[in-house]
């Protein structure tokens, strides 16, 4: 049950963390930007993993709740001057409360109907964000950078340390939730909610708790996003982003904390590859026109989803566990 079980694991973990904290010193600006985005997506996807991967409640509203966290911190900071360190947990709590309100309406829904309800919640939230006066409407809101004393965290390298630290803390928290009574209740509800209720598990309570935890993570991710980009706009939180987040879990592996990292990194690398290859295709195959090159990212995403659902429906994390078990059993793995 231990998260880190052997001295070798401790050595690898400490070395990896030290390396990532030392990375900005190397001056790799593009890598820092990439990792900032990856770390924020990991936080948001961890929340989605709680409600979908562990509790079995399909949700397409994660991008909207990320927007709630981003706009909450932007509004509270702009109008009330609240400090970033207070806004960070507060934005998660606000998103969690709104998530519970939205999730309460879908308590008796399952499967396809729950998915449709979460889609409706996404569009309702985004419509409110665009049409309310204090949210900035279609122009969005600007966010001042956080600061520690007299030091403003207004660069990618400085924000990297905050984003990485929050990601590590929330990953550790998610791992502990999964191996606790709450995590086992989530899995029981996911596998068979009727059997879970017969065993004495309060199904409604744990469903609401899963929605709250999921939206809390999304709100924290949205707050970090707002302070990193320093501007929030409704176009940053589209329904396509919600699909990408769910696709990351499918690729990485449902019901697995390492699967979140595998999925996020894989999809982000795919996006970077598409950005690199699209101009090449447009220049070398001009007879195709600009439309195929422009839609290459969506086509690649769809193809990857289909391949994983057919070939490896349990995701990269399942294959990783098989490889680790095979390595432990060497030379008797065959």
Short description:
74% of the residues lie in helices and 2% in strands. With 334 residues, the protein is mainly alpha-helical.
How far apart the termini lie comes to: 27 Å
| Arithmetic mean pLDDT | 87
Could you give the count of β-strands? 4
Biggest beta-sheet profile:
2 strands, antiparallel
* Class by alpha and beta content: mainly alpha
Contiguous helical run count: 14
Following the backbone from N to C, one meets helices and strands in this order, namely HHHHHEEEHHHHEHHHHH
Helical content class:
over 70%
- What's the Cα radius of gyration? 21 Å
**Strand order in the sheet with the most strands:** 1-4
> Unreliable runs, pLDDT <50, ≥5 residues?
none
Strand content: under 5%
- Overall spatial form: globular
What would you note in describing this structure?
The protein is mainly α and 334 residues long. The protein has a domain at 7-238. Helices cover 74% and strands 2% of the residues. The chain has 14 helices and 4 strands. Strands 1-4 form a two-stranded antiparallel ribbon. A two-stranded antiparallel ribbon has the order 2-3. Helix 4 (84-104) packs antiparallel against helix 9 and helix 11 crosses helix 14. The longest helix is centred in the C-terminal third of the chain and has 28 residues, at 257-284. The chain is globular. The two termini are 27 Å apart. The relative contact order is 0.15.
